[in-house]
Amino acid sequence: MATEVKVPTLGESITEATLGQWLKQPGDSVALDEPIASLETDKVAIEVPAPAAGTMGDQLAKVGDTIAVGAVIAYVEAAGAAPASAPVNPKGAGENIALKAEETVEDSPHLTLSPAVRRIVLEHHLDPSKIKGTGKDGRLTKDDVLAAAANGTRIEETPAPPPAPESEPAPKPAPPPAKAGERREERVRMTRLRQTVARRLKEAQNNAAILTTFNDVDMSAVMEARAKYKDLFEKKHGIRLGFMGFFVKAAALAAHDVPSVNARIDGEEIVYHEYFDVSVAVSAPHGLVVPVIRDAQAMSFAAIEKTIADFGKRAKDGTLTMEEMQGGTFTISNGGVFGSLLSTPIINPPQSAVLGMHRIEERPVVRDGQIVARPMMYLALSYDHRLIDGREAVTFLVRMKEALEDPTRLLIDL
Questions:
Q1: Exactly one of 237, 273, 286, 385 is catalytic; which is it?
Q2: Active-site residue 389, yes or no?
Q3: Per the confidence metrics, is the pTM higher than 0.85?
Q4: 103 domain residue, yes or no
């Protein structure tokens, strides 16, 4: 008996996904809840667990296919289930060939054939012992037998050369060397995530009146505080004291004074949020994702740093959930970790503002009439000018500058 593998619920308003990868091939053993496929949605990759233990059966979708929530994409055959029977052929030569094919299958106990593969072998009268398997441990996959059928090698015809020993897998054919002066190109289909990012960023440019305002911050005080307390902080909380905690707290403090930065436009209304949910851009294998730190205005430095570290790890593993990346009211993007000196970030709709952090570098500045070197960082605030005036944007950045250059303000709410 086969169990259907269906596309799981992917989150609010998500109705379809793209099949990114099959993690199991027909004939492979699967355990209950073991990941068997990876789906790409607009925001994140999601693994599909096996609904039952058994053997991977028919796969009804190919990599790259768009599939709807609830659609059946494969079957898991129960362990020890009876294999699918061969179709009945009309009397004549074809019937004799089918019987011979079935005998060949039965006489090959060393071959492990899934019901789906077995069915195709019998339908096309193939000798499975003469087909090279590309599945796990050299097992035959549906593609292997379909390719053999396409080559026209039936059981009564000249058999194919024996496969190479499993210990010596056949090397993949190398591409021909480039000719002198040849300019090659490679076309790679955009992932669903990249397509969605591209579409949303362009929509933001088309729909919002985006403007960027800059300021710079002397990071001396923050760096001194980290150097002084990093060991005690890590010993107590089990996490490093990073820069992001200071910026999240400073942004929350500034947004309290300039609430329009934390607001959004909804039709002809402005929606002000009494909470500060920060979308933090982190790197994932297929691009940037923006999980949300909820109620950041009420969180401690340790809670912020732990949340960000967890987001970063799970973004690389592809285990972030849809719920964790929805509903932010403000975004912080740290291009400084990649060496960026200055940028103009694009807002993440329906949010109205995004803060861009950049690298810290020593630059000459004037202090008390003297030119001195200080670790400086440029801050960039991109915002929707339909909602946020230039005065408010400048005030927001000034509040952040004051808090970062005197971190005591973060503790006493000044």
A1: 385
A2: yes
A3: no
A4: no
